[in-house]
Amino acid sequence: MLRILIDRTGRTRHIILVHRTGNRLLDKAALEMAQRADPFPPISEDDPRQELEFMVPVAFALH
Predict the structure, then answer these.
(1) Angle 9-39-15 (CA atoms, 0-180°, nearest 5)?
(2) In what residue span(s) does the TonB C-terminal domain sit (predicted)?
């Protein structure tokens, strides 16, 4: 599970790994995935918030 904080323009301010997988490489891959998604869509002009925080569940399937 990742916690991602973005600013009004959609740029990532913080990415926090909330729940670790127990595997260092998978944890790193989850963080890198969120970094590659930057920038996110900007916060709507009608929305007064300066930042937006959201939780992103991440699941890996190893075959």
Answers:
(1) 100
(2) 1-63
